[in-house]
Model the fold of this input.
Amino acid sequence: MEQSVGLNTGGRKRAMERLSEFVAASVDSAPASDAPFYHLVLDRIFPDDIYAAILANMPAASDYRPMHGRSKGHDLADGTHTRVKIDLFPEYIRHLPPQQRAVWDVVGRALCSRPVKDAFVRRLAPALERRFGPDYARTGMFPIPVLTRDIPGYLITPHTDTRWKGITVQLYLPRDRSITHIGTIFHSKLADGTLTKDKQMTFAPNTGYAFAVGTDTWHSADRIGPEVNTRDSILLTYFVDAGALRFLRNRGKRLGNFFLSEARNRLS
Done:
C-alpha cells in the first residue's frame, strides 16, 4: 500500500475495493479439509505490499485494550492481560496516528465487505448447511474484525465457540517463520469425551484458517512460551445476525464497545 493511498478518501476507497477482491479470491482458492472438522487453510490472504504495510503500522502497546471472554481467566499473576485487542472499525481506530489509521481503515473495511463475506459463506457451505439448513446462504452474518495481540502466558483451552457465532476466521501476522509452532490446534472429541489433538495450524506469515462454528469445532492454543515476543493476528468473527435479538445484540455490542473505547482514550 502506497503511503499516500490511505490519506486520500478516493484512493482509500479504491484500495479497499482492490483488497476486498484480493481477499475474496484468496478465500475462494484456499484448500478445504474435513479433518477433524470442515475448515479452510488460508495462504497469502493479503497482497505482499498490504501485508508489509500491516507489519510496518502495528499500533503501540498502549493502543490496545483487554480482551475478555475466555482469555480473561488467563491474566498473569500481576494482572497483566495476556490477550489485548483493537476493534478494526472506523470509530475505534480513529485515535491512531494518521498513517496507521489509514492502513487499518482499509484493512478493516475490506474484511467487513460483502465480497469477503460471500466468499467465506460460499467456501464453508457444507458446514453452514449442516447447521442452518438449505437456506444457509440467507442467514444474516455480522462481521467483527479485531486485531489481537497475545503475549507469553496466554493460552486457551479446547472449546467450540459460542453459538452466537456463525464463522470464525483467524489471520496470522508474524514477521517471519520463527514461531510457527504456536498455531491453533484442532481437536476431535471421542465417544468417551476425550479430546485428541488432530491438527495444528502453522503460525506463518500471511496465513490463517476459517471454519463454520459447530458442535464439533473443538480448538485451542497451547500456552505461549518466553521465546515469543507477541502473537499477532486478526480475528474475523461473523456473528449470526438472524432475528431481532441477534440483530440488536450485535449492534448494541458494537456501540457499547465504542463508548468504552472513547472513555479509555479520554482517561489515557
